[in-house]
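Residues pack. Consider this:
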Amino acid sequence: MVRNYTTEPVEPGVVDRALGNATRAPSAGFSQGWGFLLLDEPEDVRRYWAATADGIEDPDTWLSGMMRAPVIVVPCSSKAAYLGRYAEPDKGWTDREEARWSMPFWHMDAAMAALLILQTAVDAGLGGCFFGIPPQKVAALRDEFGIPTEFDPVGAITLGHPEPRPGALGSPSRRRRKDVAEVVHRGSWGHLTG
């Protein structure tokens, strides 16, 4: 997750490929209940930060680095698309009852699509960062960009060229990555593979 970018533009073909890959993500019932707000013009990126962040005139280090990213993608999910899809005859439910769902797959599927955007960016030599939108700023984001109420932003993704940095910084430099043997439980919980 890159949090400090150069201002170098991103090739539009890479962004198109990333969004194309996002639409190939799995979705429950092939509901495809996602939408993506693409902000790749400097004035639109600026509008994003004005709507969602405080202190853009005097940003801290994190915000300053993030604001230089030339592309922002806001993946959104539509619960209505999933509830409607599973009320269709081939799914067997006759109602749109949300309580039938053990997890909010509409958000999970949008997050999987977001991961494909990030992977495409990394494969193209770019950096990306998925981050949350402050809950108290979502209404302003909706208003600024006309996001319909049927869609809920699940976060935002910055894309751009990483600012060169000497040595590793951030959490990975202070915390070790857990080994597979510490997190994979084979057969039943507690039977670690290591």
